[in-house]
Amino acid sequence: xxxxxxxxxxxxxxxxxxxxxxxxxxxxxxxxxxxxxxxxxxxxxxxxxxxxxxxxxxxxxxxxxxxxxxxxxxxxxxxxxxxxxxxxxxxxxxxxxxxxxxxxxxxxxxxxxxxxxxxxxxxxxxxxxxxxxxxxxxxxxxxxxxxxxxxxxxxxxxxxxxxxxxxxxxxxxxxxxxxxxxxxxxxxxxxxxxxxxxxxxxxxxxxxxxxxxxxxxxxxxxxxxxxxxxxxxxxxxxxxxxxxxxxxxxxxxxxxxxxxxxxxxxxxxxxxxxxxxxxxxxxxxxxxxxxxxxxxxxxxxxxxxxxxxxxxxxxxxxxxxxxxxxxxxxxxxxxxxxxxxx
Length: 342
Ligand code: ADP
Ligand code: MG
Known about the structure:
- Strand 1 (34-40) and strand 2 form a beta hairpin.
- Helix content is 33%, strand content 25%.
- It has 11 helices and 16 strands.
- The strands form 3 sheets. Strands 1, 2, 3, 4, 5, 6, 7, 8 and 9 form a 9-stranded mixed β-sheet that branches. The protein has a 5-stranded mixed β-sheet with strand order 10-11-14-12-13, sandwiched between helices.
- It folds into 2 domains: 2-191, Histidine kinase-like ATPase, C-terminal domain (Heat Shock Protein 90, 2-Layer Sandwich); 213-341, Ribosomal Protein S5, domain 2, CATH 3.30.230.
- Helix 1 (2-12) packs across helix 5.
- The protein is an alpha+beta fold.
- The site of magnesium ion has 4 residues, from helix 2.
- One of its GO terms (molecular function) is endonuclease activity.
- This is DNA mismatch repair protein MutL.
- Keywords: DNA damage, DNA repair, Endonuclease, Hydrolase, Nuclease.
- Residues 208-338 form the DNA mismatch repair protein S5 domain.
């Protein structure tokens, strides 16, 4: 079973940033309003994620770190088989199979907390442990038992950079959640949540300053564009309801590289060449500008019309109406940018 978990880990747990991603997404799934992320040595030595979510009852801790074993896989030669399986319910067991892992939690309303240790896939016993409401997952010495993978890890700065970039992308999508990061014992990032003390908290605009900075926010142009669904008629295809909202920076803040292009589809950060092309094309057509636009854009559409499971870790999507989505995004940006030239 440890072998199966290690193979699964090989598919999706590439580096400390993948661990952070899986753990923070679990925290958000549990309704956390605040997530603390403590890192050491770029996350290689330690990733610890603590949340104030619902928590896990003691008797469910073993469940959280176990998966359905498949008898089809006996050795690493069967890797191709694994590649086709999903990753649902596999993150914790996978991570725990390639690290020194501790899961601690106290369920909302429960009097006592508990924890469970897993060492390179060897699951220990549930033990009582004091813990505030919520969950802490501690992942030490990633890949300590898989030297072949450990040697692919990069310098501390590089691994930290991957983590910070992913957190920035998440922070943009979830402005209501407070995220606090420390590295080697020092506070390194803080994204404030939407508490009462932030009366100015305007639909993510404050988070925009925190994530991409004052200069981006100053140059940012609001995008808000929607279409109604249209049934098929007169030989024309049916069109889904689409909404695009967010910000694009004006050319005063254009970039030489595509490093600040954040696209979310139904709240998930994704990469999509066709949508990126549509934005760039509108930018170039309206503003006659050859540089890279910086943007944060949220596309929303019927989940049935987009496939997000193309690859579990790579954030690619497939649109049922790819051409329509491209043209819609082009039109949305074209309108928003044209308004500034009037
Ligand atoms: P998945 O998220 O796909 O269900 P995971 O392996 O990431 O699989 O997590 C397994 C399970 O452990 C979750 O379904 C959830 O029940 C529980 N869990 C993990 N992390 C947390 C957390 N931070 N708070 C509450 N429950 C959690
Ligand atoms: Mg998960």
